[in-house]
Automatic annotation (TrEMBL):
The keyword ATP-binding does not apply. The chain crosses the membrane at residues 64-84. This is Type II secretion system protein G (Modular protein). GO terms for cellular component: type II protein secretion system complex. The keyword Aminoacyl-tRNA synthetase does not apply. InterPro entries: Bac_GSPG_pilin (IPR000983), N_methyl_site (IPR012902), Pilin-like (IPR045584). Pfam families: N_methyl (PF07963). Keywords: Membrane, Methylation, Transmembrane, Transmembrane helix.
Length: 181
């Protein structure tokens, strides 16, 4: 589809009596319509098509091909596979830090109970009942409060829980099982 280039004429061309023929009016209107339609067409293409797309005639903006989409998806997959191990390692490190803190608090509370009462608690629930802690903490690896491994006192005449470990049999990043911390 080709558009004829209109000649530039003043918008309000005066019609003289001698030139006021229907042929002259038709030519004038035809030229104005061509100029207006080409202006609208150029404006429409300019607004519709960005510089990064190839615009050809009335076809409009070109879309992405299947190959281009596959390449983008595969690059995103490669980047995700590179980032995932680092992300997983950070999650494990944060759980290990949480477990260390929880074990420190539990051991400290057990020692406070022993100092106040002269003996170790029989169960971890005794710490909650006597208001040493509000609730039993959740083991970050087993995600329960009932999996704690308790170590009974081996001293003669002492009974009760002397130490506590995680109930998880997983191995930490430094190679030591969590139930030996």
């Amino acid at each position: 589809m080709s558009i004829q280039k209109a000649t530039r004429q003043p918008l309000m061309e005066p019609f003289t009596e001698s030139g006021n023929t229907t042929e002259h009016i038709e030519t004038y209107v035809h030229n104005k319509l061509i100029w207006i339609s080409s202006f609208i067409w150029r404006t429409h293409i300019t607004l519709k098509c960005a510089d990064i797309f190839k615009c050809e005639g009335n076809k409009g903006a070109r879309g992405f091909t299947l190959i281009e989409m596959l390449i983008v998806v595969s690059i995103m997959g490669i980047l995700a596979s590179i980032a995932m191990p680092s992300f997983q390692k950070n999650i494990i490190q944060s759980r290990e830090a949480s477990l260390k803190n929880t074990l420190f608090v539990l051991r400290d509370v057990i020692d406070q109970y022993n100092a106040d009462n002269g003996h170790y608690p029989e169960t971890l629930d005794a710490l909650v009942e006597n208001n040493y802690i509000r609730t039993l903490p959740v083991d970050p690896f087993t995600k329960t409060t009932t999996s704690w491994i308790t170590v009974l006192s081996d001293q003669e005449g002492e009974t009760g829980i002397y130490d506590v470990h995680s109930g998880s049999y997983k191995v930490s990043l430094d190679g030591v099982p969590y139930n030996e911390w």
